[in-house]
TrEMBL record:
Gene3D superfamilies listed in its UniProt record: DNA polymerase family B, C-terminal domain, Helix hairpin bin, Palm domain of DNA polymerase
Primary location: nucleus
GO biological process: base-excision repair, gap-filling; DNA replication proofreading; leading strand elongation; mitotic cell cycle; nucleotide-excision repair, DNA gap filling
Cofactors, names only: [4Fe-4S] cluster
Cellular compartment(s): Nucleus
Domain of life: Eukaryota
Protein name in UniProt: DNA polymerase epsilon catalytic subunit
CDD domains, alphabetized: POLBc_epsilon
GO molecular function: 4 iron, 4 sulfur cluster binding; DNA binding; DNA-directed DNA polymerase activity; single-stranded DNA 3'-5' DNA exonuclease activity; zinc ion binding
Species for this entry: Phaeodactylum tricornutum
Amino acid sequence: IRTQIVHELEQLRDRPQRTEKPYIYHLDVGAMYPNIILTNRLQPSAIVDDATCAACDYNQEKNGCKRPMEWVWRGDHNPATRNEYDRTKDQLAREPQRDNLSFAQLPDSEQAILVAERLKTYARKAYKRTKVTEENTRQDVVCMRENDFYVDTVRQFRDRRYEYKKLNKTWKKRVSSAKDAATKKECEDRVLVYDSLQIAHKCILNSFYGYVMRRGARWRSMEMAGIVTKTGADIITQARVLVEQIGRPLELDTDGIWCILPRSFPDVYTFQSRAGSHLKLEYPCVMLNADVHNKFTNHQYQTLVDPVRGIYETRSECSIFFEVDGPYRCMVLPASTEEGKLLKKRYAVFNFDGSLAELKGFELKRRGELELIKTFQSQVFERFLDGSSLKDCYESVAEVANHWIDVIDTRGDSLDDEELVGLISENRSMSRQLDDYGDQKGTSQTTARRLGEFLGAEIIKDKGLNCKFIIAEQPYGAPVTDRAIPTAIWKAESSVMKHFLRKWLKSPGLDGDALDIRNVLDWDYYLDRLGKSIQKIITIPAALQKIPNPVPRVEHPGWLTSKVNHLNDRFQQQSIQSAFSVQAKNPLVRINELDIEDSGPSSRESKRPVVHRMRRHRVKTLDSTVEVDAEPHAIKERVSLSKEKFGDWLAQKKKLWRKLRSQRSVPAKSDGVDRADKKARTAHTIESYVRDAALAISQKEWQIVEMRE
């Protein structure tokens, strides 16, 4: 197996440029934050300073109990300077305040609020922003000999969860091997129980990190939380750097990375023991785990061995391991409608059998979202598996988009009223009472207030009110939050419905069909909502992959149109790198390399257009390296022109003219330059530019511009 892995890696090294179908993998760290805590012995009481260490009996360099670790502090502050702050306070001191009190007479808390509001207004005008985010890398010391009560608790929950996961896998295997219905039912129940237990322990396990960040917690430590997140980010960043050298990362998560690797990259290998059991070796995991082990192992981990004498045992600890999921058949990543932005934690992944493996971040997974968008997404993702080419795939996907656009354009003619209401309505649950929101504006708050108007105030007193609403077209120009209409109004009596719809739509003259839900709806609003979802999932990714817009009725954003035109432009501006030639790997092997001083005499006429005006009857000047008398034995004696020797003179000239004509048609090698060098000289590079300039000075005609005495 080792020989096979080495051979495949050598093939990739020797031929890195290759075209082959990739594999999609999800490489994630199992229980990342708890294992970071366990590896580095992190706990709130272990974050110590110099004063704590000075009072410690083990404060000696040889003990190695201090482990410095970095974390990132981030804070937001007003961009105003100290002078501007003092000036603002001085202005407030000169202004009268409430109840004819001066600024100095107000409580400190109220003074701080007034100064903050005034500074915020000033910063918005002067700096065009109200806050500045600043990040600083800080370092704290983690004590390796602190009482490990917190670490032991985390370890117990982690180990217990691993036990339940192992039992879950065991009973899953028994389900497939069960022979009767009763045994199978028992196995399925056990699978459900152990799966629920491991999920419950997972939630508690992850809460150990969130607990130390919560204000008011007994063991709160922002430093410990920062160390955990910084270490986790460094692990994922390191994995991304390694993956970029082999394949391509697709999506970075908090504890993992989605990537594509070449199909020829080593994948999964199986060892078979003498007892008959099998052990899988997942090479992508082994590769990342080796990297993590080299850089994130804690070589200072200490455990108390003898409490009486205070003896500690030091060992290396690293329980951070990557796990691999995959390979997968397809991964759908949406695009942002804004230029230069990426949508994080949104993707759909499919197995090779066409089943949906994972869906994250889309409206389909959220409660209360527009049912139209959720239905569209539930139908469109599986269509990405259709077709044998990229164009065929987008054509299949576009059919779903065009269907739902037709539903909006026809105002739901193919649907009855109940189906239409279920499709375009939104459901929101209010977690608090309506009075707790105060003057806060929102579609849920507007719907709750209007439900209280015609159903009674008693209904909105309790929290957890379910608000089901649609967006109306009227009143024209009003914000969306003011145009939310509860769908329950169409189930009320006719007179009640007319009264409240006229009131909410601010149109007293509405009557008859004008109060029908199809005529009240803001169809442009729903078309815009659907269009944005189509842009994110279909049209923008297609355009960036040089596919014509598969849904022409949904136009590209302005920035994308210009980008597509630039990609399809036949006359694009060339990069400056095209003016330079590639240097040979071994500079000692370069043959016939010309010096810049020799470029003029050894150059032939360039194929590029020149600005010199040459008369037709003139003979083109040859390279100075090609002499007429290159072969002295060919012409022994030059014959002078006279009437008596005209025949000899003409015969000699004909020989010379034949020689010149053959030198023009056949590339001469007398100058030491072969065909490859001639092709290199005629290329449009900086070297050819300098050579042509030297040739123009040495061999071309000079135009007299001015003569002076």
